[in-house]
Amino acid sequence: MKYAIILPCLAVAALAACTKQAELPKTPEEVVKAYQAYYDQNRFEEAKLLSTAAEQKRLVELAKMMEEQSPDSTQMTTVFLSIKCRTKGDSAFCDCRCKDQYETYTTEFVLLRRKNNQWRIDAPKEERYEYNNEDIEGVVDTLFDLLDVEQQQQQ
């Protein structure tokens, strides 16, 4: 008789535990740390929960690239030496000093506040290089000089 009461209670408790969603981190600092932990371990689906639509697209592409690699070779361990976040309206800018297996470096995370007041990591802006004509002409000249030297050596 005891088991008839205990077993249904355990089943209800287990069901409640399974259906309860994990609470998302609240502050920009917490979001950065959680996102980086997921990213380091190639857990891109979880990282997408903390990302804007633009960053989610980037993570999908990254996940495709990582599928071709050995899982052990792509996993990192990032330690945050410092995080300093400043907010301006619905944006947050977090300057971080980090250390992984290979180096110590600084990076910036940009977060945007979205629905339900949740902070989300935004995709980094693409670096654009602007070249002037003199730079391009200099590179072309160097390439032609190298070709001339190579042709002279072959003769």
Characterise the protein shown here.
This is Lipoprotein. Residues 1-22 form the signal peptide. Keywords: Signal. The structure is a single chain. By secondary structure, the protein is α+β, with helices and mostly antiparallel strands. The protein has a domain at 32-67 and 76-123: NTF2-like, domain 1 (Nuclear Transport Factor 2, Chain: A, Roll), CATH 3.10.450.100. 50% of the residues lie in helices and 22% in strands. It is built from 6 helices and 4 strands, in the order H-H-H-H-H-E-E-E-E-H. The chain has helices at 2-19, 28-40, 44-48, 53-67, 71-74, 133-154; strands at residues 79-88, 91-99, 104-114, 118-121. It has a 4-stranded antiparallel sheet with strand order 1-2-3-4, with helices on one face. Strand 3 (104-114) and strand 4 (118-121) form a beta hairpin. The longest helix is centred in the last third of the chain and has 22 residues, at 133-154. It is elongated, with a radius of gyration of 25 Å. Residues 1-20 have low confidence and may be disordered.
In a few lines, what is going on in this structure?
The chain is an alpha+beta fold and 155 residues long.
Layout of helices and strands, plus pairs?
Layout: H1 2-19, H2 28-40, H3 44-48, H4 53-67, H5 71-74, E1 79-88, E2 91-99, E3 104-114, E4 118-121, H6 133-154
Antiparallel strand pairs: 1-2, 2-3, 3-4
Q: Largest sheet at a glance? A: 4 strands, antiparallel
Percentage of residues in helical conformation: 40-55%
* CATH fold field value of one domain: Nuclear Transport Factor 2, Chain: A
Question: Helix and strand string, N-terminal first?
Answer: HHHHHEEEEH
Question: How is the largest sheet built, in terms of strand order?
Answer: 1-2-3-4
Radius of gyration: 25 Å
Going by CATH, the architecture of one domain would be Roll
Q: Give start-end ranges of low-pLDDT stretches.
A: 1-20
| Number of DSSP E strands | 4
Inertia-based shape: elongated
Give the rounded overall mean pLDDT: 81
Strand content: 15-25%
CATH class descriptor name of one domain = Alpha Beta
Superfamily (CATH H level) name of one domain: NTF2-like, domain 1
| Number of helices in the DSSP assignment | 6
Distance N terminus to C terminus? 100 Å
Keywords: Signal
Protein name: Lipoprotein
